[in-house]
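#onboarding

Welcome to the new folks! Below is a worked example of what a typical request in this channel looks like: someone posts a single protein sequence, and someone else replies with the predicted structure as tokens. Don't worry about understanding the tokens yet, we'll cover that in week two.

Example request:
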Amino acid sequence: MSDAATDAGSATGPDVVGTDTVRIPTLADIETAREVLRGVSVYTPMEESRWLSSVAGGPVLIKAENLQRTGSFKIRGAYLRMSRLSLEEKAAGVVAASAGNHAQGVALAAQMLGIKATVFMPGGAPIPKEKATRGYGADVRFHGHSVDDALVAAKAFSAETGAVLIHPFDHFDIVAGQGTCGLEIVEQCPDLRTVVVSCGGGGFLGGIATAVKALRPDVHVVGVQAAGAAAYVGSLAEGRPVALKSMTTMADGIAVGCPGQVPFEAIRRYVDDIVTVSEESLSRALLMLLERAKLVVEPAGAAAVAAMLDSPDTFETPAVAVLSGGNVDPLLLMKVIRHGLAAAGRYLYFRARIPDVPGGLATLLNDIAAAEGNVLDVVHERTSATLHLDEVEVQLQVETRGAEHADRVLARLRERGYHLSQ
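Example response:
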């Protein structure tokens, strides 16, 4: 029996359901979890987003789990799991693996419960998440390049020291704790038709789906994964968790190579659709949330909004988009904002050939200014086999008001006789 199956099978609670080897929480378990979490987790706010509602053609509300304690939903499952450890287990300490959000949830829960915590993080984990985890009193160690690598080290540490492994998503109590967010969603939006949730290992999506479907079986539940780390797409098609061979995404919070057994069972039963979003869509959604909702969200936290922006007509309203986390490295945020601006057509990159004569560049810049483009950067290239002797190629970065304005800038330059390439 796998570690995941052992963890799931050891859970106790009323009306536990599932297969012979994997048991998942029920509504009663999630309601019990909420009582344990009173005074620990925050009942996070939900507000209608006018700009998203306009795009979707009906009411869209945002569930701001990025405003949860530690900046993400993770405290819900981590505290519930650790509060149920025996005195002997608490004395042995706990160990976890995480890119940052689960690490902070475990560290805070350990601090509140008086438990020693060791957390393994991948080498590329965001610095703010590392510092926050240390700030809650956990011993942070780095291992590997992904959460899966760090999890291998955490399991080895658990076997060596006796520390209890607090899995980031694959445990009955973790899924039950995350499911308390689903109870809040139904209470805050009684006429809910669709709920959209980001998904990595699946604990958050599985918990929310279990709670929502128990209360409102007519609601459509949609999970969202980064296209470069979409383990659930293939796994659901195979009918079992299947590991990805590789992953590439800036959304470290949902970069999980293999679904957990417990959340997989919940998602298989209760989630209606899994969709994927590109890096460009994640960047654009993060930028829109920053500009229009005045909310700082990490790329993984913006996945639900990215999906709605990609295909607004496919989500029946009233809909709720869950922002799962807001722990973003400022340096990454700067890069993502620039990436989002480019994806939204706000940054225009192109090359133009101009005569290599005095005033040639000034004429080009004046033509761009006449089209109301703002030049941010200019780079000359004078040596190239494709250039004539009397030509120079200029690489430009131009700020525009959006995709339509960018098209107008390029059209004007072509009308003026410039040879352009992008």
